Amino acid sequence: MRKLLGKPLLWSLPSLFVLLATAGVVWYLVDQYRDPALQWTIAAAAFTTAGLLVAAVGLPIALYQLVALDRNVSRPHDLIKALNQFRIEASPWVKALYEPTTDAFARAADLVDFQGWVDQVAEFIRTNMDEAEEQSFRNAGIPKQTVHELEDKLVYIRDQLIPKVREGYW
Fold first, then answer.
1. In terms of domains, do 62 and 124 share one?
2. I need a labelling partner for 94 at 20 to 30 A (CA). Which of 20, 22, 26, 165 fits?
3. 64 and 115 together in one domain
4. 161 and 97, same structural domain?
5. What distance in Å separates the CA atoms of residue 59 and residue 125, rounded to the nearest whole number?
6. Quick check: 155 and 90 in contact, CB under 8 A?
7. Which of 133, 145, 135 is nearest to 93 (CA)?
8. What residues contact 97, with CB distance under 8 A and at least 6 apart?
């Protein structure tokens, strides 16, 4: 019960303070005048000023929260899009893997390109996710030949990273 009341009460304290301060100001000002029309006018002016103060302070905070929410909502989509782009960049190697006449990693240039791709993906994972996922990605398929290492890394992205992003880990 304490947890349910704690945060809402804490977040409502500034509003309660403004309400009590406004009520105090209205009480004091209304008590100064005897004419009922003037009392109502003073009360309306005080409440309008308090409402303007709350709006002037609350609107920028609300807009900031809206932008932060939009960023959090679009972040998983951006991460998944980037991970899929890395998978697309590896597609020439995958295509070459299944061609019976060529070995995709026979040339040293392909090995260098592959290692550069692994480093680029690992850097992205470390920057946007965490170091443990980076190490898991780097270790995927390590004891195997480079051809199978690529397959294991692509499977790791598809079966491990993308589902975790969808579930909201990062």
1. no
2. 165
3. no
4. yes
5. 36
6. no
7. 145
8. 104, 147, 150, 151
Return d(Cα 127, Cα 123) in angstroms, integer: 6
CB atoms within 10 A of CB 148: 12
Planar angle of CA 97, 95, 89, nearest 5 degrees: 115
Record the tokens describing residue 97, joined without a space.
């893997």
Among 134, 115, 139, smallest CA distance to 123 is for: 134
pLDDT band at 137 (very low <50, low <70, confident <90, very high): confident
Residues 95, 59 share a domain: no
Please state, in angstroms and rounded to a whole number, the distance separating the CA atoms of residues 95 and 84: 16
- Measured CA to CA, the distance from residue 115 to residue 94 in angstroms comes to 15
* DSSP class per residue in 5-57: HHHHHHHHHHHHHHHHHHHHHHHHHHHH---HHHHHHHHHHHHHHHHHHHHHH
Structure confidence by residue, pLDDT tens digits, 68-113: 777 777 778 888 888 888 888 887 776 666 665 555 555 545 666 7
Q: Provide the token pair at 100.
A: 């019976």
Same domain for 100 and 160? yes
**95 and 58 assigned to the same domain:** no
The parent domain of residue 146 ranges over 90-167
Domain count, the chain: 2
